[in-house]
Amino acid sequence: MITKTELDKLAKYYETKEFIKDDPIQFPYRGNCKKEIELYGFISSMFAYGNRKIFISKLNEIFSKAENDIVGYIKNGDFGNLKNIEYRFSKDNDIIMIFKILSKLYNTSNGLEELFMYGYNNNLTVEHGIKCLVDYFYANCNNQVGHGFYHMIPNPAKGGAMKRMNMFLRWMVRSSEVDLGIWNSVDKSKLLIPLDVHVSRVSRAMGLLKRKNNDYKAVIELMQPLREFCPEDPVKYDFAMFAFGVQSNKKGNTENG
Known about the structure:
Layout: H1 4-14, H2 34-47, E1 50-51, H3 52-64, H4 70-76, H5 92-108, H6 112-123, H7 126-140, H8 147-152, H9 163-173, H10 197-205, H11 216-229, H12 238-248, E2 255-256
Antiparallel strand pairs: 1-2
Helix pairs in contact: 1-12, 2-3, 2-9, 4-5, 6-7, 10-12
C-alpha cells in the first residue's frame, strides 16, 4: 500500500492553481459573492460526468444564458432560453426543472448552504446534509421530469457513490489552492471522497481500496485509510488520485465518472 509520505507528496504536487483551468471548478471561480459561487458550483457539479471537454462546453453554453448574472437569472425564474438544451441523459425539461427548484430555493431562503445545514446539523454528517438537499429537489419536482433529472440529482438511498455531490461539497467546504472554502460551518474532516473512475482505479492500484464496485460502500472503505493519513482533511488526497489517474489515462478519452 502507498505510504502517507508518498501520497502527501502527490497531493501537494497536484493541488495547485494550474488544476483549475481544466476542471469544472473553473466555473464557481466566476462568482463574485457567496450565492454566485454556490450556484455556479452546484450547477457545474451536476453536469460533471462523461467527456470533460463536452460537459465544459455545455456548461459554457448554459451559463451564457444567464448573461453574467447567475443569481438574478435563477431568482427571475424564466428559463425559456434553456429549451432544447440537453446533455446525455438529461433533456431540457429535466434541466429546466432543476433550475426552477433552485429559483424557489433562492427566493425563499438563503440558498444551498442553509438547506444543506438543516440536514447536516442533525448529526454532523455530510450524508444527512446531502439527503436534505436531494429530498428538497424530489419534493419540488413534478411528473414531467425523466431519468435525466434523477441522474443529475441521484438518490443516496440507492447506495451510489454520490461523486458529483461530494465534489461540490469539497469545493464549498475546503479552503486551499484549488477549493474555495466558503461554507465555514461544515467540518472538512467529515467530507467524503468524490469517487470517480480515476480515483477508484488509482486507489485500487495504490492498495487503498479493495471493493470492486464504485459505490457508497467503496467510498466508506477508501475513507478509512485517508482519515488515518490525514484525520483533519482526508479529502485533500482527491487531487493526488484524480489528477494522477487522468494523467495516466491521457491516451484515452478524459472521462469523469
